[in-house]
Amino acid sequence: MGLSLLVWLIVGALAGWLAGKLVHGVGFGLVGNIAVGIVGAAIAGWLLPRLGIVWGGGFLSAVFHAVIGAVILLVLVGLIRR
User: Fold this and answer.
1) What separation, in Å, do the N-terminal and C-terminal C-alpha atoms of the chain show?
2) Is the confidence at residue 71, as pLDDT, over 70?
3) Which of 9, 34, 38, 54 is most solvent-facing, going by the fewest CB within 10 Å?
4) Is 61 helix (H, G, I), strand (E, B) or coil?
5) What's the DSSP call for residue 24?
């Protein structure tokens, strides 16, 4: 259980940081990036299979999915903030 939690945190941090770099002007710090990455992973886990987009398993695939979801989340947050 502890190792899987650590992997979730690492994936979330990487995905949130990468999404923040892709969506300019958005930065939430380490804890915010982890939260954005984890929520982004949940969004991508729900949305991508419904669109017929499924990549293999593994760490890099998890990060890639989470980044896609986190970018979607940050774009939506940016639209709401306007």
Assistant:
1) 40
2) yes
3) 54
4) helix
5) T
Beta carbons of 40 and 15 less than 8 angstroms apart: yes
In angstroms, rounded to a whole number, what is the distance separating the alpha carbons of residues 69 and 42? 7
Amino acid of residue 46? W
Phi, psi of 9 (to 5 degrees): -65, -40
pTM for the full predicted model: 0.84
Measured at the CA of 4, the angle between CA 61 and CA 39, to 5 degrees, comes to: 60
Q: Give pLDDT tens digits for 19-70.
A: 888 887 666 777 888 888 889 888 888 898 899 888 777 888 888 888 999 9
E strands of 5-52, at which residues? Answer: none
